[in-house]
Amino acid sequence: MDNHSSSVRLAASLQAARRSSGKTYNQIAAETGLTNVYVAQLLKRQAQLKPETAPKLRAALPFLTDEHLQEMMLPPMRSYDPSIIQDPCVYRLNEAVMHFGQSIKEIINEEFGDGIMSAIDFYCSVDKVKGVDGKDRVVVTFDGKYLPYTEQKSENMMSNLQAREK
Description:
Blueprint: H1 3-21, H2 25-32, H3 36-43, H4 54-60, H5 66-72, H6 88-112, E1 115-130, E2 136-148, H7 158-165
Antiparallel strand pairs: 1-2
């Protein structure tokens, strides 16, 4: 059995444990102190469960087995099915980032300098709010650490520093 098949089966089992609990991602997030998106990532095997969070997740989802928790604490194989872009919600999220991406980049550069937002030191949540017209609205928050690009000076390269020490 390959890693991908095993990961898919584990994710399906984790999703079944969530459904069996009858809880939403928001409820599990509130019980564990995690963001709702991070809970979803854990249960899709796209994030690594930390040992200190495992008891909270077990309490929130009693159908999780010891084997589930042990597997969730291993570094995941972060990947995605390329056909997911065909889902209308995922397609529209991608479209929004592509449409607004250049403007977001310019504002990041204006506010912070030449750099990027980390997708590793990163928090994400999805919230439901009422708009001024009283209709439901989706709020997606991306909260990533700023990472500046560095000037690549040869004097700072480890290989050059180690060569000088010899």
